[in-house]
Amino acid sequence: MMADKESPKKPIVNNSNNSKKKKKKKRGGAKRKMTFEQTVAYKSVREWVFLDRSNDNCNNSTSLFDSVLDDFGVQWSKYLLLTDHDTMSGIPEALEAARRFGIKIIPGVEISTMFSTRGELGPKEPVHILAYYSSCGPKKSEAFEKFLGDIRDGRFIRAKNMISKLNKLKLPLKWENVIKIAGKGVAPGRLHLARAMLEAGHVDNLKQAFTQYLYDGGPAYSMGSEPVSEEAVELIRETGGIAVLAHPWALKNPATIIRRLKEAGLHGLEAYRSDGKLEVYSAFADAQNLLKLGGSDYHGRSGQHESEVGSVSLPVMMVHEFLKVARPIWCNAIKEILETYVKDPSDSNLQLITRFGQTKVSKGISPFTCVSEFIKQCLSTWLSKEERESAEFEAIKLELSRVSVSLREFEARAASK
Asked: What are the boundaries of the region Disordered (predicted)?
């Protein structure tokens, strides 16, 4: 009888387990294996992400960028594309902070431009172009920095014009307050004006400042001295960068703009946001054979309409395709920068190599005794083993070994300036 009582229990238990298993399968199913192409892409991207991990000698100091990364909990991110408006001045600090979090930073800049649908006399629309560079930064950097500097100068004039319009709207702001909010040497933008309006009590939040006064064509809006969009794309290519159209969903006539910028040399466009892939812009990219990227477009405005840093999940295949296009361009730019230094081993040319990463000095003693040794170390963080061992870079390293400038001498001269 005991056996009879126990026998029906077994199938009941087994049925219960089977039903649970079925539920699990229904809920998630078996994990799909990566395809061969996805495996290759993953390995390639992973190799690039961890290029400089073994050479991390950073100290434990903190920075403003540390707090941004920490506040938004993006330690799990593997790479971030950093693009401030019309300046790359924050890149060195970001690179140092990112290493401490084990994150790969792609240096970049978001360039403010103006697009005209029918030539110079036609209606104009603001268009933002993203430029992505290697860890060494752009070649022809003086020309590129002048280009950005002219835009920033125009932002000062634009901000003053917008303050004047706000004053006429009985929403007075003081120039000194706007400059203080922007920070020393920073060209003020609409976000800084919005914060000044909030502090003055003219609006309840930053969103209201934009939706009622500062939006494109709004009552307090003013145009700056932005360059033509096609000109920006061409310069990005000339300086060894990857040109990408930012947030095309914000444009009034995206199809025309994408087509025209593609003709100028555009490499890609943003098709991914925090809420996923936008099929219409993915289709635009496919039609024009453009790369598909994405970004959170975080500006520090706060509020529920602001996407968090690192909130965009870009598929590894998209990153792989991006790097397949970008890395040869970046390699060539690095090669030209190094060749310039070999021909003229001046302080200014060496600073072009070191501007995005300071040499590590401990108690006044550099771990590198000469410039060539330091540059070889840089190459190990910028390039893969295969890229470094190419005939072109081997020839450059040979030439660098003949440059007898002491790194300590360079550091001493730089410190005295």
From this structure: 1-32
